[in-house]
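Running this now, will post back.
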Amino acid sequence: MHRPRMHYSPEQRARVIEEFSNTGRIDLACSLAGVRPEAHYRWLKRHPAYKAAFQAALRQAVDLLEAEAWRRAHDGCERPVVSHGRIMEMQQRDQDGKLKFDADDKPVMGPLVVREYSDSLIQFLLKGRRREVYGDKTEFSNPDGTPLGVKVEIKLTGGLDASGS
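Update: finished.
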């Protein structure tokens, strides 16, 4: 069954772009803007200004992801310590590092957390920023270490015509 084509306002197109730049998800951006995703793909084909705005929003969304990857790699993330299915607790401290007590002079308890850093995120960030140093390298050489010379020759035989059949 063919659904009738909806007519969307320029404001809705702008809202799709705005929401996408914040979420990085076209399905969510369209939903928040009240637009069918098919309309977004049609606009990409038919409206150069929309396509340019979407490409800028895509760069912004990727920048947000990269910033989050950097934060997790550099600053780490706090994770609760779990033992036997329960979150472990410890006495909390104030901003000056002093142990906290409630009004009844009982220790103020909170979750025991550890800060974890992501080695794999660090690796990806370094590969992306300094590929010449940290990127994957594949080098072929002769047993004596000299560069391997490679010549590739493709010879078609048989009855193939221009269409490949």
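Residues 160-165 have pLDDT under 50 and may be disordered. More later if anyone needs it.
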